[in-house]
Structure formats: C-alpha cells, structure tokens
C-alpha cells in the first residue's frame, strides 16, 4: 500500500501537534460520555480541520467498540478495513510489539468527511484520552493543496502527494516523490533552487536529517525511502511569528 507512509505520518504529525493534555474524571460504568478538554481548529492544505480532545472513564479496549457502535449509527463507517493504524503511525515493523491495549488510531468516513480517532490509555490508568480530528475530502485534493500551500518551501513539481498543516507558529509539510536517484543530492538541489542552504545533521542507511536555512527561516528536514518512494518531512517553527 503505497500511501501507508503518507497516512501514517499524517496521523502521527496531527496527533503530535494536538494531544499533549491531561485531565481527571471519575465516571462509572463504562460508556461513551467524554469530558471535553479542548477544542481548536487547524488548517490542512488550506482546509479547516476541527479538533477535539477529551477524556472518558474506562479502558481503551472496552471503550472503542462503544464508540464504533455509536458512530456507526450516526453514519460513520470505519475506513481502511477496520485497521488499527498505530504501527504505521509509530513506524513499527516488529509484529511482536503490541500496543493495542494502550494506543489505537482509526479513520472513519461519512460522505465526503473523514474523522480520525486516536485513543490513549496511560499504563495503570482507568480512563482513556481521545483525540478526534474531522475534515472534508477536498483537503487531499492535489491541485487544492498546491493552491493553498502554506509552508516556507514550495513542493517539487513532481510530487505525488503533498500535505501541509499549521498550528500557531508550528508548520509541518509532507511530500511524497517518485523513486528518486541520489535522493540527498536531488533534495539539496531542490533547496538551493529556493534559496535555502542545507547542512547535514545525521545520516544512516534509511534516513537523512538536514537543517535548512534562508535568512531567518529555519527548517528541519527528514528524508527517507519507503516502498520505492522518496519522502520528505519538513518542520518549521518560529517562536517570534505566527504565519
């Protein structure tokens, strides 16, 4: 599945920018009656995404089927053959690592809307934290993504898939490319064409990490190959400015 990396990274970065919150709630018995902790909106490829973070008493494995049943009655169907996307989110390739009791990520679809559900049960806890992100299908339209691109570096013209999200002064971009030759050299040429200089920070067999700079603009870039495609992950954070 060639989009596995893209969706996995997309979900990871969305949860990363949305879910570092804790709260306490005493509630019994196990039912889906969440206590909202925070609601906010972000933009993905120029399209607004609604986000909600909540906490609910009960263990994750008991709560998940309750949520699925409730949402199913509301017309939300699990997307991706009921697959838990946690391994893709975390890049886990070892089947012996089982996190389903503590962490689950699912995607649902209703009409032209997508809803992402992330559930986390801290070890030793009797409550589950949830994150829900909802956005329309048009957010993944390539032509719209290019038109609404909101990152300091423009995507290469041969990009297969692109994604850009902003939350305050933090911006994240994901780019998938056809199988590249001399990936690092091509990437540095791409940076240079936009006036950025790149300095290698770390490199191993599967990944390269670069610091990019253009005047006051600073970007952290991760390069890797997966299933024959080249992937670029970009992170830009400016504590002084909100884009």
Descriptive tags:
2 domains; alpha+beta; 12-stranded antiparallel sheet; elongated; Double Stranded RNA Binding Domain; Protein Transport Mog1p, Chain A; 12 strands; 243 residues
Question: Could you characterize what this model shows?
Answer:
The relative contact order is 0.16. Strands 3-4-5-6-2-1-7-8-12-11-10-9 form a twelve-stranded antiparallel beta sheet, sandwiched between helices. The two termini are 34 Å apart. The protein is elongated. The longest helix has 14 residues, at 60-73. The protein folds into two domains: 4-139, Protein Transport Mog1p, Chain A (3-Layer(aba) Sandwich), CATH 3.40.1000; 149-237, 2-Layer Sandwich (Double Stranded RNA Binding Domain), CATH 3.30.160. The protein is an alpha+beta fold. Helices cover 20% and strands 41% of the residues.
Largest sheet strand order: 3-4-5-6-2-1-7-8-12-11-10-9
Shape: elongated
The helix/strand series, from N terminus to C terminus, equals HEEHEHEEEHEEHEEEE
CATH class of the largest domain: Alpha Beta
- Characterize the main sheet: 12 strands, antiparallel
Mean pLDDT level:
77
What is the CATH architecture annotation of the largest domain? 3-Layer(aba) Sandwich
Structural class: alpha+beta
Total DSSP E strands: 12
Helix content: 10-25%
Separation of the first and last Cα atoms? 34 Å
| Rounded Rg | 19 Å
Low-confidence stretches: 17-28, 81-98
């Amino acid at each position: 599945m060639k989009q596995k990396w893209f969706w996995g990274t997309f979900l990871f970065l969305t949860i990363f920018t949305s879910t570092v919150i804790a709260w306490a709630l005493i509630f019994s018995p196990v039912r889906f009656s969440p206590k909202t902790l925070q609601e906010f909106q972000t933009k993905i490829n120029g399209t607004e995404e609604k986000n909600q973070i909540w906490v609910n008493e009960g263990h994750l494995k008991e709560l998940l089927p309750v949520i699925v049943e409730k949402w199913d009655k509301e017309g939300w169907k699990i997307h991706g053959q009921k697959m838990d996307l946690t391994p893709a989110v975390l890049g886990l390739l070892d089947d012996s690592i089982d996190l389903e009791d503590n962490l689950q990520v699912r995607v649902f679809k209703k009409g032209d809307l997508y809803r992402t559900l992330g559930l986390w049960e801290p070890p030793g806890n009797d409550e589950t934290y949830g994150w829900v992100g909802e956005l329309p299908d048009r957010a993944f339209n390539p032509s719209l993504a290019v038109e609404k691109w909101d990152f300091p570096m423009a995507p290469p013209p041969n990009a297969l898939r692109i994604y850009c999200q902003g939350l305050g002064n933090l911006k994240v971009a994901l780019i998938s490319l056809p199988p590249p030759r001399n990936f690092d050299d091509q990437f540095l040429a791409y940076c240079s064409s936009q006036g950025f200089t790149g300095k290698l920070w770390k490199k191993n067999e599967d990944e390269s990490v670069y610091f990019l700079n253009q005047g006051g603009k600073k970007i952290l870039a991760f390069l890797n190959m997966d299933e024959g495609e080249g992937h670029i992950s970009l992170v830009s954070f400016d504590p002084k400015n909100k884009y």
